[in-house]
């Protein structure tokens, strides 16, 4: 099979039929009849699954993978890639903010540059002021904390070669941050500037971005643990200098000091830092705990495929 188009479904009922029509048209233009569309239902609470299953009854190119519950966008995408059989795999969101027709441009770029991945980069982030600024802050923190270069304003949409997808599926970690794995897998990757439409409010709100940022940093960087050591060493050095000052002042100058404010400030400051450091270590321990249990990444309840 030449081409697989992979998309996830979550509250996607308004877009399923149009996405199928446009994705099918783009695929036929490129590879004729040698393609499949893999839709992964990530426990969607609306009737996305019913609409997708109806498509399988009329179009043998459509494969629907139904997960037993909502496992999250990143895990659903990895499940879709695992079920894709094409020599080239086009991963894209199904909400039509990313256009299925990008496939044509991406394939042209892949063939011209002989690369394994072509992905989209937004010209400007969509959304209001808070959403845009939180996105800027998110990428600034990633650049500072990660030990690999993370492109800014990337889209889900990407065309990948078979060998790249196979390499991506070698990662078996349970706490998935797929954008980091995209980079970690290597190979030659090119980007194209695209402009996303805005069809619905972003599912990644401010607190969701903070949670995702913490997950990304602790999944791909040990810098927070190193920072604990250096901050602790700095505080110890400053404390030693201040202790020396107090001893010298007491024995040589005999100047009484007002100590209540400084003592209480020090206690609250150091107490807060200690709790923060314990929390950082706790996050890393929770990841170790999650990975060592080796629970399945997702549970597939059913696969709807007329060709089976």
Please give a structural write-up.
The protein is an alpha/beta fold and 308 residues long. The chain folds into two domains: 3-204 and 296-305, Spore Coat Polysaccharide Biosynthesis Protein SpsA, Chain A (Alpha-Beta Complex); 223-293. 52% of the residues lie in helices and 16% in strands. It has helices spanning 16-31, 48-58, 73-83, 102-113, 129-145, 162-168, 178-184, 206-220, 223-253, 260-293, and strands spanning 3-9, 35-41, 62-67, 88-91, 117-122, 154-161, 189-194, 300-305. It has an eight-stranded mixed beta sheet with strand order 7-5-6-4-1-2-3-8, sandwiched between helices. The longest helix has 34 residues, at 260-293. The chain is elongated. The model has no long low-confidence stretch (mean pLDDT 81).
Order of helices and strands: EHEHEHEHEHEHHEHHHE
CATH class group of the largest domain: Alpha Beta
User: CATH homologous superfamily of the largest domain, by name?
Assistant: Spore Coat Polysaccharide Biosynthesis Protein SpsA, Chain A
Structural class: alpha/beta
Strand order of the largest sheet: 7-5-6-4-1-2-3-8
Oligomer status: single chain
Total count of strands = 8
Look up the CATH topology of the largest domain.
Spore Coat Polysaccharide Biosynthesis Protein SpsA, Chain A
Q: Into which percent range does the helicity of residues fall?
A: 40-55%
Shape: elongated
Count of individual domains = 2
Distinct helical segment count: 10
For the report, how would you describe the main beta sheet?
Answer: 8 strands, mixed
Q: Which second-level CATH architecture of the largest domain applies?
A: Alpha-Beta Complex
Q: Please state the average pLDDT score.
A: 81
Distance between the termini: 15 Å
Q: Segments where pLDDT lies below 50 for 5+ residues?
A: none
Beta fraction of the residues? Answer: 15-25%
């Amino acid at each position: 099979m030449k081409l697989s188009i992979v998309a996830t479904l979550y509250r996607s009922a308004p877009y399923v039929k149009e996405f199928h029509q446009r994705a099918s048209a783009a695929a036929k233009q490129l590879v004729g009849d040698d393609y499949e569309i893999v839709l992964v239902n990530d426990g969607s609470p609306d009737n996305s699954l019913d609409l997708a299953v109806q498509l399988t009854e009329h179009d043998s190119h459509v494969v629907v993978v139904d997960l037993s519950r909502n496992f999250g966008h990143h895990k659903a995408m990895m499940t879709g890639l695992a079920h894709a059989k094409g020599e080239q795999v086009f991963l894209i969101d199904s909400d039509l903010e990313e256009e299925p027709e990008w496939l044509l441009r991406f394939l042209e770029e892949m063939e011209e540059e002989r690369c394994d991945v072509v992905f989209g980069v937004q010209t400007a982030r969509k959304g209001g002021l808070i959403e845009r600024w939180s996105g800027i802050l998110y990428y600034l923190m990633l650049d500072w904390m990660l030990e690999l270069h993370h492109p800014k304003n990337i889209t889900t949409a990407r065309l990948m070669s078979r060998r790249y997808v196979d390499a991506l599926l070698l990662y078996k970690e349970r706490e998935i941050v797929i954008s980091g794995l995209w980079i970690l897998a290597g190979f030659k990757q090119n980007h194209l500037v695209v402009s996303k439409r805005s069809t619905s409010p972003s599912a990644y709100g401010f607190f969701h971005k903070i949670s995702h940022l913490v997950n990304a940093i602790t999944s791909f960087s040990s810098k927070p643990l190193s920072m604990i050591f250096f901050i602790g060493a700095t505080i110890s050095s400053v404390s030693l200098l201040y202790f020396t000052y107090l001893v010298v002042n007491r024995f040589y100058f005999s100047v009484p000091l007002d100590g209540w404010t400084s003592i209480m400030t020090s206690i609250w400051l150091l107490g807060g830092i200690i709790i923060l450091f314990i929390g950082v270590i706790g996050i890393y321990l929770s990841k170790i705990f999650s990975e060592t249990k080796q629970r399945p990444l997702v549970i597939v309840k059913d696969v709807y495929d007329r060709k089976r």
